[in-house]
Amino acid sequence: MSAPPDFLAATRSSYDRVAADYARHFRDEMAGLPVELSVLSLFASVVAGPVLEVGCGTGLATAELVRLGVDVSGVDLSPGMLEVARRHLPNVRFEIGSMLDLPHPDATFGGVMAWYSTIHVPDDLLPTALAELARVVRPGGYLLLAFQVGDEPLHMTSALGHEVELVFHRRRPDHLAKLLADAGVPVTVRTTREARQGERTPQAFLLARKPE
Question: 27: Cβ–Cβ under 8 A, 6 or more apart, which residues?
Fold first, then answer.
């Protein structure tokens, strides 16, 4: 088996270090994000069947889908983040995995969500990641992406008092929409909101659907 791309190892170890502090710092953030809550509510209202959240982290968005009655499971690179997620959501199935090689057969899920997780995938691997997300969506199912808008990546070497090695790739909605269409899941809804105080960039949300 070949070695994983360097960004996977760096992302995994970085989130392992910050997991506990990340969960505390962002614990109540979702309650103050009406656009995000509306997007998740829309997603929950259209998906049928199980949902997979790819890059679920500590389960902050997962918990909102659970509250909305969605049958959701999660996959993430970081064992540390998943340890926190399992503690907070003991009835949800979480497993370790990469969006470049998901541990599921084709067409398993009615919906797949990548909530600020494709942001760490380098540009050259992004089409591969999106194709892998699309692979596990059933015909007629949905794929939801959330990401930061921009053109230049942000490289972070410290976060929440820890040393990290994280690159946040900001991207344009039109570019992501084209890549999703190329992966066989054309976008049906797109929403962008302006940056709030303390944020560096606008935020974008794309809902795509695999044809029947």
Answer: 60
| pTM across the whole model | 0.92
Task: Report mean pLDDT in 10-residue bins for the chain, 212 residues.
Answer: 68 90 80 93 97 96 96 96 95 96 96 96 95 98 98 84 87 98 98 92 98 95
Q: What is the DSSP string of 138-183?
A: EEEEEEEEEEE--SS-EEEEEETTEEEEEEE----HHHHHHHHHHT
Alpha carbon 145 to chain centroid, angstroms: 7
Q: How many helices (H) and strands (E) does the chain have?
A: 6, 9
Phi, psi of 41 (to 5 degrees): -65, -40
The H-or-E segment that residue 46 falls in is helix 34-46
